[in-house]
Each structure stands twice: as structure tokens, then as C-alpha cells.
Amino acid sequence: MIQPQFTTLTPDECAKLLSHLQRPPDNAAPPRVHHRNYTMALLMLDTGCRVGELVQLEQEQLYFPSAPVSTLTIYKHQAKNKHERTVPLSGRLHDAIEKMSLQWWLSDHNHGKRYAFYATWCMRPLTVRQTQRIIASAGKLSLGRDIHPHLLRHTFGTRIERKAGIRVAQMLLGHKNLSSTQIYTHPNGEDLKKAIDSLDQKK
Question: Average model confidence (pLDDT) for the chain?
């Protein structure tokens, strides 16, 4: 039997995942670690950030000079396709970044390059593999299935395409070619139901 392919998270699944990351039951890690993990997932869900880009983010890209930024710029050297892009930040992400500054970044000394997400030292960021494990574990515990960080980006792309169109999704995802964005236009069960329901509507 062919297993169904989960290409996006539903709004309810996103809420469950984020809630679990904020307050995982029976987890002895400090609250600031939970908030770091929550903020990383939120960045991928609300900006479409790739996990490889996420771990390269520096603090000043999110908080500069003394407040959360209003837009996130992924630089060419960080982007997978070497294509710089800028994404506005959601209100909840703004709040999460403000809390990151209080819980993590204010205590950092100026070492030059200060990464946004790390374990013990701001000049040694979390790795892609570490981040993948955090998201996969949270998905297993909160949703009962394995998820990958790219699923969060895919969820972002699909939501943006449905609300604002494929051209806006292309810009926010940083795709050079529109063909790369077209994978986010796949219909889901809700889309199919709306199509059938429209047959009952009077023309």
C-alpha cells in the first residue's frame, strides 16, 4: 500500500508543532532552549527560510540596532541559489525575536560574527543536522509522524501562493525561475471540495 505524501502542514498541525516546541512536556531543558527551538520553526514557517539559511543567520539580521527588524534579508552567500531576498516579518515572529534578544543575545559579547541560533557559544551555530533533529523530534511527539524542516518552508510557500499568487510566492521564496515555484500550486482536499461546491452555485 502506498503511503500518502504529506506535502504541507495544516494550520492545526502548525499550531500543535509550535505549541509543543514552546512547552514540550517532560522536557528538562531550560525555557530559553524551548524558545530558541520555537523561534527557529517559526522562522521557517513564516519566512520560508531554508534550514541551511537558518543556521547561518546572524543576530543583527534579526535584531538591529536595538529592536527586532521589520524585514529579514537572506544574503547571497547564505542563500542556496545565491539569490538575495527580503521577507517581511509577521507579528508573532517579531515578538519571538524580541524574546530571543532578552533570553540569548543580550548576554553575548561582541565577538564580531554572532550567530542567532547556537547551543553554548554565539560563534558556533547549530548545525543543519542538529536543527533537523529538533524539528523531527517535535513532529514525532506533537503530530505522531516524522517531519523535515523543508516541510515548514513548503507549508509557507503553499500558503503564500494561495493567498497572494504565484509571483509573490516566487519572490518570497527566492526562486529565480517560476517553474521552481509551481510545485507549491498543488491542490489539496479543501481545494477539490471548493471546486465541486462551485458547481452548485448559480451562474
Answer: 85
